[in-house]
Design goal:
Length: about 350
């Protein structure tokens, strides 16, 4: 063993210790320069190779190789311990020509998109969009809407009651009352929003769903105005081929009341499984605002009249997007939601 071999071995051992104690990638890089860099200790020592007697050259050369490997390994290990970023950076430095990572900002839920679309259709017909609370009181959800005390929708089996007697609104119709209480006629509003009912979820029912309420109060409003607005809405949403049909019905807050169907956009009215072979699909309830409701909000029914309607947004979405089961809308499966 000659002096050079000894110096190389000592340097390798020192470097190993220092590498193990290094606190960051900068310290490791400094070590690499100190020992292996162009003007570092190893190149310095190797200049002395010339003075090594020929029979010791081989052993000295291999001591250099071993020492260099030990130091490189020590540096690599230390880099891995420190998180490896620098180690990688050395091997495959940042490639500035790579395309950036795309942010995935997501988008609005299909029901929200549809609600916005409905609002913009009604806005073009002169309606203003308003909001109402999801937690309601009995007065606005039932009493003011002329709902008799024994009406089944008041039953706790149908509507969610809080212990304090308030409820989750079962319809968007209470927004009619809130608007009329605070505004003088004429009024022309639509109110999209979530409603709640104690239904067992199935393909066409959920415990919460969405409606868009419409209300128009003015002088001399007639059923013909209601029909034209609904027909226009159908055309805007589904094109000129769709027809509407009004059927007599009952709601406590409208008189007369109708249910309002679209001709089936899937089969064109011929009859299919979506429309249960009837050719029509129920979309909304509607009618002329009952004079009792007008009295409840202080409007004179001898002067003012109007119509109201309430559309089911999930039904509309199912038709619009051919969704066979509304539960798809709430499963939060990204593969479904991404399609909208
Ligand atoms: N609120 C009724 C429902 O949920 C729909 C409706 C609204 C009917 C307005 C008439 C007028 O079934």
């Amino acid at each position: 063993m000659n002096d050079i071999i000894e110096a190389v071995n000592r340097a390798a051992a020192d470097a190993e210790m220092k590498a193990a104690a290094a606190a960051d990638a900068g310290a490791l890089e400094a070590l690499r320069i100190e020992y292996l860099g162009r003007n570092g200790l190893f190149p310095e020592l190797s200049k002395k190779m010339g003075s090594v007697p020929p029979e010791e050259r081989k052993a000295t050369g291999s001591a250099f190789n071993t020492g260099r490997t030990r130091i490189q390994n020590a540096l690599d290990e230390a880099m891995a311990r420190l998180g490896g970023a620098g180690a990688k950076a050395d091997k495959d430095a940042i490639d500035l020509t790579l395309p950036g990572r795309k942010a995935a900002p997501g988008h609005r839920h299909p029901i929200t998109q549809l609600a916005d679309e409905c609002v913009s259709v009604f806005r073009r017909m002169g309606f203003v969009a308003v909001d109402g609370p999801e937690i309601e009181d009995i007065y606005h959800n039932f009493d003011a809407l002329n709902t008799p005390d024994d009406h089944p929708s008041r039953d706790p089996k149908d509507t969610f009651y809080f212990p304090d007697g308030r409820i989750l609104r079962s319809q968007t119709s209470p927004v009619q009352i809130r608007v009329m209480e605070t505004h003088e006629p004429p009024v022309r509003i639509v109110a999209p929003g979530r409603v709640f009912r104690r239904d067992t979820p199935d393909a066409t029912h959920g415990m919460n769903f969405h409606q868009i309420e419409g209300l128009y109060i003015d002088k001399g409003v007639s059923m013909a105005d209601l029909k034209s607005v609904l027909q226009n809405f159908a055309w805007e949403m589904f094109g000129k081929d769709v027809n509407i049909r009004l059927r007599p019905h009952f709601f406590p807050f409208t008189e007369p009341s109708v249910e309002y169907d679209f001709s089936c956009v899937v089969c064109g009215g011929k009859g299919c499984n979506v429309c249960k072979n009837s050719g029509y699909i129920e979309i909304a309830g509607a009618g002329m605002v009952d004079p009792n409701v007008l009295k409840n909000v202080g409007y004179d029914p001898e002067v003012w009249s109007g119509y109201a309607f309430g559309l089911g947004l999930e039904r509309l979405a199912m038709l619009r997007y051919r969704i066979p089961d509304l539960r798809f809308l709430y499963d939060n499966d990204i593969r479904f939601l991404e399609q909208f």
